[in-house]
Specification:
The protein contains two helices and no strands. By secondary structure, it is an all-alpha fold.
């Protein structure tokens, strides 16, 4: 009879284990959550790396914008200076041409028979 009780108890335990095998244990749930948490953690790390990369890129871009604006400002100043010099140069050329014409006219008055 002892054997019958042992076999019956063993059968009940096997049946209970088989019946419970469809329901995940706490350990199964923990493993499942840890696998999901690992994926979520990977996604977060990837997102964080993209943010860091993006922030560095933004800082570099802003620096280039600032440098470009400085270059534009200097360029405009150079253009303005250049235009002023061209205008002054044109005035000097006109003044010089008038002086040449005037000096040639005076030369011709003072020395009518001689050519230049």
């Amino acid at each position: 009879m002892n054997n019958i009780l042992k076999i019956s108890a063993l059968s009940v335990m096997v049946l209970a284990t088989v019946a419970c095998s469809g329901t995940p244990t706490k350990g199964d749930k923990m493993l499942s959550h840890s696998a999901n948490a690992k994926e979520v953690g990977k996604m977060w790390n990837q997102g964080n790396k993209l943010i860091e990369k993006g922030e560095k890129l933004q800082a570099k871009g802003q620096s280039q914008i600032d440098d470009g604006k400085d270059h534009i400002k200097k360029g405009r100043s150079l253009v303005d200076d250049g235009e002023d010099k061209v205008t002054k140069g044109q005035k000097l050329v006109k003044k010089g041409q008038l002086l040449l014409e005037k000096s040639e006219a005076q030369y011709n008055e003072h020395f009518p028979g001689e050519s230049l």
